[in-house]
Amino acid sequence: MSWEVVIGLETHAQLSTVSKIFSGASTAFGAAPNTQASAIDIALPGVLPVLNRGAVERAIRFGLAVGATINRRSVFARKNYFYPDLPKGYQISQYEIPVVQGGALTIATDAGEKTVRLTRAHLEEDAGKSLHEGLPEGLTDVSGIDLNRAGTPLLEIVSEPDMRSSAEAVAYARKLHALVMWIGICDGNMQEGSFRCDANVSVRRAGEPLGTRCEIKNLNSFRFLQQAIDYEVRRQIELIEDGGSVVQETRLYDPDRNETRPMRSKEDAQDYRYFRDPDLPPLTLDDAWIERVHAAMPELPEAMRARLVAQHGITDYDAAQLTSSRALVDYYGAAAAALPAKDAAAHKLVANWVLGEFSAARNRSDVAVAAAPVPPAQLAGLLRRIADGTLSGKMAKEVFDALWAGEAAGDDDADAIIERRGLRQVSDTGAIEALVDQVIAANSATVAEFRAGKEKAFNSLVGQVMKASKGKANPAQVNDVLRRRLEA
Fold it and tell me: What is the set of domains in the chain, with CATH numbers?
């Protein structure tokens, strides 16, 4: 019988506030251990938490973006468990009534678009970090505790078990990752732990009830997420087919061995002994506050995608690629705005270059859009010379590479590189006709092949004309003049 995979994700997005969720300590990454842990974070006697307003507003922003219900009243609870880097012995989280309830994300799959329902998104604090360090031989290994992360604001986003493959899980995680960065609530840095996923995985035979799930903790890359799920699916199926049964537990993924390993038995809600935190009153939101957050929201990707297609005349595919990243579509918009023409042809030219040469160069150099050495206005200066016929496509790529290498600075430096390298395209009809006549006279055999019906011979003659012009002749004019001459 066929097996069905059932996957739900719990995602922790670190909120982009400058201070922690219940204290004024900094959330900056990379500080020396225990230098950003206040008296509240380390739970000294007599301290009281104070909720960060910015964290609440970011949670509201997320709820609005996914079409969720924003609960006007939500409560904080104490989630009790012992962990070395959790000084209080409990974590402040939301349980019974989260700030965000429901919502959905639409993902692209091989079978078409699919809607993944969201269960909830709730505010909570992060724990610290245990550092395990080895000492010289003969001495006992030691563990240190860094409490800088303790109290860092998190939004835990829980999906329904709607995904049926690791590919769908990755598509969902990527869509969620792009969204939280787009609306400015999380920097999305997976290497620094700002965005990490726990995958709940189970298998069942078609038509049977849900199987026993295992949770794979703290997956901080999309590749690891896919590999961990694929391994866990194989493990569970083989275990059941061999006559065993899956035990509900929390597991860790080892990327070096590409395997999951048991971490601890999986706790249920009653194991955490949730109860309402007596130090924090219920969080109450009024319509005016929610409306202020809504008014400050950026245009969402789906709406912008539709607008670019309708107003800029670019394809739906190009619009989808551009809106996959807020930084990328902002770059495109700035470059398009710097071009004098605002018609569909100009917008298509910008989209082609942003998604083509610009994105390829970024991938080769592994740089973010904001750090790219060719700013939007400089790219627009290059594209103006393509549009007015000064540069051919090949010449333009050479100029772009020079700009990327830092040969010039300023918005109009494409012109300086064009002049310095002598890259101006020949568009003079008389000059091109003379070159064409020379090539026809020198290649009578190839001309005869074309006139006998061999179309490939035409391309050979075009190449000869371009070679004679040292690559500077306008290719479109060469094609037009050559064909007229040959068919005369």
Answer: 3-288 (no CATH), 299-421 (no CATH), 429-487 (1.10.10.410)
Residue 259 to residue 488: CA distance in whole angstroms: 71
DSSP H helical ranges for 283-358: 287-295, 301-307, 316-322, 326-337, 344-353
Give alpha helix (H) positions in 73-217. 166-182
pLDDT in tens, 60-94: 999 999 999 999 999 999 999 888 888 999 999 99
CA distance 254 to 101: 33
pLDDT tens for residues 271-311? 788 999 999 999 999 999 999 999 999 999 999 999 999 99
Cα torsion 57, 63, 68, 74 to 10°: value is -40
Looking at the chain, the whole-number percentage of residues with pLDDT higher than 90 is 70
Average pLDDT taken over every residue of the chain:
90
E-strand ranges in 138-258 read 142-146, 153-159, 195-205, 214-219, 249-254
Tokens found for residue 207 = 């038509």
Contact assessment for residue 29 and residue 142, using Cβ atoms and an 8 Å cutoff? no
The pLDDT of residue 139 is 61
- How far apart are alpha carbons 394 and 471 in whole angstroms? 8
Alpha carbon separation from 224 to 143, 167, 231 (Å, rounded)? 26, 12, 10
Tokens 């509201």 -> residue: 60
Q: What is the DSSP string of 405-440?
A: TTS--STTHHHHHHHHHT-PPB--HHHHHHHHHHHH
What pTM was computed for the model?
0.84
